[in-house]
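Supplementary Methods S3. Input chains for the assembly prediction are listed below.
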Amino acid sequence: MSSSVLSLEGIRKSFGPVHALQGVDLHVRAGEVHALVGENGAGKSTLMKILSGVYRPDAGKMTLYGAPYAPANPLDGRAAGVSMIYQELVLAPHLTVEENVTLGDEHARYGWIRPRTREVERILGDLGQQGVAPDARVSDLSIGKQQLVEIARALLFDARIVVMDEPTSSLAADDTQALFEAIGRMREQGLAVIYISHFLEEVQEVCDRYTVLRDGKMISTGRVMGTPVSRIIEDMVGRSVDELFPSGDHALGDPLLDVSGLQGRRGVPANVCFTLRRGEIMGIAGLVGAGRSETVRTLFGLDSARSGALSIRGREALRVAWMTPRAALDHGLDLLSENRKEEGLALNLSLVFNLTLSDLRRYSRAGFLQLGKERRDGARWVDALRIRAGSVEQRADELSGGNQQKVCLARLLQQDNDILFLDEPTRGIDIGSKAEIYKLVHRLAQQGKAIVMISSYLPELLGVCDTLGVMHKGRLSAVRPVPEWTEHRIMQFATSGYDA
Amino acid sequence: MKKPRNYKAMLSEIGPLLGLIFVFALFAALTPSAFTSFYNVKTILTQSVIIGIAAFGTTFIIVSEGIDLSVGSQIALTTVIVAAVLNLPGGDPGIFWPLLALAAGVLACTGVGAFNGFVITKFRIVPFIVTLGSMQIVRGIAKWIGKEQTVPTPDNWLTNLMLIDPSPSWLLFGPGVWLALALLVVSAALLKYTVLGRYTFAIGSNEQTARLCGVKVDRMKIVIYGLGGLLTGVAGVMQYSYLTVGDPTTAVGLELDIIAAVVIGGGSLSGGEGSVVGSIVGALIMAVLRNGSNMLGLPNYVQEIIIGAIIVGAVLIDQQKHRLRTAG
Amino acid sequence: MKKPRNYKAMLSEIGPLLGLIFVFALFAALTPSAFTSFYNVKTILTQSVIIGIAAFGTTFIIVSEGIDLSVGSQIALTTVIVAAVLNLPGGDPGIFWPLLALAAGVLACTGVGAFNGFVITKFRIVPFIVTLGSMQIVRGIAKWIGKEQTVPTPDNWLTNLMLIDPSPSWLLFGPGVWLALALLVVSAALLKYTVLGRYTFAIGSNEQTARLCGVKVDRMKIVIYGLGGLLTGVAGVMQYSYLTVGDPTTAVGLELDIIAAVVIGGGSLSGGEGSVVGSIVGALIMAVLRNGSNMLGLPNYVQEIIIGAIIVGAVLIDQQKHRLRTAG
Amino acid sequence: SSSDESGADGAAALEIAVVPKGTTHEFWKAIHAGAEKAAAEFDVDVIWQGPQKEDDRQLQIQVLQNLISRGVDAIVVAPLDARSMARPVEAAVARGIPVVVIDSGLESDAQSSFIASNNYEGGRIGGQYLAEQLGGAGKVVLLRYQEGSASTTNRERGFLDALGEYAPDAELLVDNMYAGATMALALQVSQNILNRFPEIDAIFTPNESATQGMLRALETAGRAGDVTLVGFDVNPILLDAMWDGTLHGLVVQDPVGMGYEGVKAAVSILRGGAVPERMDTRTILVTPDNIEDAEIQELLYPDFDRWLDN
Ligand SMILES: Nc1ncnc2c1ncn2[C@@H]1O[C@H](COP(=O)(O)OP(=O)(O)OP(=O)(O)O)[C@@H](O)[C@H]1O
Ligand SMILES: Nc1ncnc2c1ncn2[C@@H]1O[C@H](COP(=O)(O)OP(=O)(O)OP(=O)(O)O)[C@@H](O)[C@H]1O
Ligand SMILES: [Mg+2]
Ligand SMILES: [Mg+2]
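Predicted structure tokens for the full assembly:
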């Protein structure tokens, strides 16, 4: 049991000037679940993509079951029994569930495909997804279910090593449990599982051993049992993070935003009402698909509303149905999207273009842009948020994920509006950057801004917010001060819509 | 559990069919006798053969999120090559030489298609640009081979393929129509029931996914464009048969008609959607419109306006349907 | 902090320029005296005016990740409308009527462009399809207005715009060249230094992000396509001036040349990239090639093959540059 | 065919540009042959250059402009449009390059000479013959060529006039359909016309591609030979059809003569001679009855290869 089925030694990989991996070792044994943890940009995904054959390493060697292993492409990886669940959703939206699950592994005779519906149904059943039909179109499923389809693909495949790169980042709690059970069965069958997650609780729950990466180097490895979480965190960020969540008071002031009777086109959100005061950080919890994003998007005019009104700074109520993003910005609202790549950054434009895009009026006179002023202000924000970039003219897609997220935040800061909707502001962000973002949110509240923060990560809501509401199927519970909530109470409302 | 999906899939193929029936009925009502005569139906079918066969190939390309603007030039190239081979010294218009000419024409287009695919995948240039370039290059080559002239050919059996009245009259339709029908069945089966077809859809739906799932995307694309070229080559032979000469200036802009046929038939330029049956229906709709307008004596410009409106209209209706489905 | 970026941006504009210099030098070496004569340079410039002006508009559209296939038809429509207005009863070829004709032509195209933008945004249909449809519709309308004929017009000052030798000879170039130059400056400034231009880039780079940032995407697109139509209309007036008649069958397929010019000049069909200066350089490269080939007495097919190869080659080189940049 | 040997023997040969409407019809090949024949005879160089796309006025203007820039000694042009081409022709003359217009008229007085078949007369000949074949009555179709083409419009006019004169009882079924620029278009339209009128007696088509398209349509419909078809211009396929009895009459021009006379006129202007302002080349009716005459044979089967090396 103790000998490694997979050994990676001295793996190096550079992308131009970026040295993503600088000689990493990793040893995985049969029948173990091995956690791979580290900050954003530490190189976890890159290492796993080398393992699965997406990238080729610049140096280093890999051994799989005692034999040298050097995949040239994902096909080689699969042939060697490496199955991978990628961090970003890897699905063909036009195809059915069955077609996606079997993609690349079709059973065919003379090129003619033979259906594998039975097997696909069995796998979905194993994941507790009897309700997902094999002939449903994947684009018709929610993100959580789509994630599960991808997991099913990895399970259907007859693998010897399964890599899971943040598989639970958009899973509901019960789906996560079903996944853990499936992982447990794999362990029993003697498969090796590599599990990447930013949720250290999950690591403690399912993993046997761990390896920490930092800045493309292996820092430590060991048994999960008996290693304190604080030790792992310290290895990840290179210092001890004693206080993740900021402390210090900020006073709540007059009401800034009053929402009543918000009703979405598809019935989500359903009759949502809440009031937001100056200096308030209001959290919204809920399961995936509960309608949290939809609520703020509707308020911001990105999704259409059936009815509802909002009043800002006590002025007369506006109809949400007439809201547009432009009007929302002009009324002092601003939104940080949960998906920065699709909605948040113009990836092939420069950093400074992205920073000022929502506020070009400030940088133009009679329609003409004042490029100098724009660049100076851009440089200020880059310094203020410690964004790592060559210059303000650097293209957004040349930045690492965490820095991209900071650019998005900087756009909000630059816009300087009073009412901020932050949708999953720390999704996919490492723990050190998280702490920075929490501090920033706190500082904004102290300046008298009002913030709505949506997150699927309960500890952060409980640690950062003043008040909290929970959503279930489009309905928002009463918004209460955080101390009045317990995790149990939150989960009860989130799963049943019943508030004790 | 299986029904709703099939039902939906059928709906998206039935849509264009209803359109075809509507257009046909409309003209039948306006010009009763001449339009609906069996002979005229045969004419319409024959006139759809070329665009139809080329559209089968383009369907694969469009489903894979590609586009091929060089189809018209490829057709011209085929007619010229067929004519040139038939004129080779020592050639005689028996069975063999025309067969050789046919093979040469089809092979040349398959080569052009595969080359397009190669450049697209090897250098990662968008298909629009690559095929915009090869559209000109192939046209130039066709003119070069044809010495900038139409190339007359001796009589041979190839020129009988596109006759409206077939020579053994029990055939009912000309050989071209039967050939198109056979290719329809083969292409539809290829696209729906084989690994090739499945990968075509997967690449069009999400190329990255296909790649990560072990589909050899580059090689597949070369195959897809090559297949497109092959079918275009067959269409080119039909065009030769239609014209009985090699004409390097023929079929200018025909690719747009072909793309329109695919799109009217439910194909989506953003990939992942389309069907061979839909595409032939699209081709038929356009042929019926042209034929019917001539029957009515409508001027060309009215035809053009109607066809333009139908292209947009078809996509619009398709989209409403999708919306309905998502909502329901 | 300022240098590297500007240097890079310049490089991507200098690339096509180097290409132009290379092509020019090549032909200058091959046909020394005639090709580099001032008169021939004037000829080349005049011949680039139409594609150039239309390419300015298409640059905006392509930068915003759109495409307009109806440009050729719009140009034909303009020539016909200008001719029709000039032939109105009561019209006289003084200053006023030609101005009215010009305005009518430009306005019509602006309308077509804005309508394209409206359909694209309102019904969420991809621009390729919408403009493929309007390409046919507009062509039909042009033929309808022109009664399927070329429309002769009385002599008037509009027809002097595209003369190679201007009438006051101190002008050096014909008024058309000067107009193109003025529009070049205006369009380049619009795209680079105004909010409109910035929004065009933002929409092309990521439409959803632009929406989130408060850009009124739908309205902007209508403006962009309208602006494209406006410039196309001006190009159409130039075409009329060139032909001196209204011709509903002119400029078939010209949109592809125009798109090629934009792409050769560094525009990307996936949006967010392109420059007005690059586009005019692209147009010039094509004009130099045509002219030089004529000078050398190269047959047409050689020209076609060369231009096709250059389209692909330009994009290929552009791409290598990008890769270099990412790597370096 | 064209050459650029500039001044190997000191004095460069005169460069005479010949600009056809297109390059793909047999007709233009014959003009080219005639031009080369004259070039050999008068010891000048012919530059043969046409627009890239058939029927593209803009491209023909560009070709003319480029030839002016190049500084050729004279231009012989078959204008695609009577008015559009006037400007560039005038520009050429203004720069001291004499222009001879062939085939189709030009609305300008800048050109030195206009050499063409009498298209109207050619149309009349065809119309008269068709009327005789009909015996004075029957159902007739006129498939026009293309919007805005002067020479074919004159042929169509001549045809209609003669038809009215010699067959007043004939019924004209269609005269508003256009064949379009290429044979493929002509064929499709022809098929649809044939379906629309099952009872056609005779058809007139005013140029090569329209005639060939209609002939092919008759063949695909199995009606070739049953319907009297009278066309205009000639190519080997049309001649074969006449031998087969599926084509009943062709009005042929003398393109070799036209090309020859065009270059000859240009040369004599350059060498200081006088040329007539207007010169008609022949239009002759070829029918199965006279096709074997020696004179016709020479017209129909000119020896291109003597002059063209491709
Ligand atoms: N294709 C690429 N081109 C350039 N740089 C890249 C590329 N992929 C990754 N990088 C860089 O390599 C480094 C490691 O990235 P990687 O995705 O492996 O991090 P990670 O540990 O998975 O982080 P996260 O927790 O955010 O997923 C980062 O600095 C990233 O910016
Ligand atoms: N484009 C869409 N088409 C169909 N249904 C959608 C679409 N977008 C959202 N929904 C549905 O609307 C509901 C609310 O989604 P929303 O994204 O607001 O949830 P959420 O609570 O923010 O979850 P997440 O954590 O995934 O962001 C879900 O049931 C989802 O399936
Ligand atoms: Mg990662
Ligand atoms: Mg959400």
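DSSP finds ten helices and twelve strands in chain D. Confidence is low (pLDDT under 50) at residues 1-10 of chain D.
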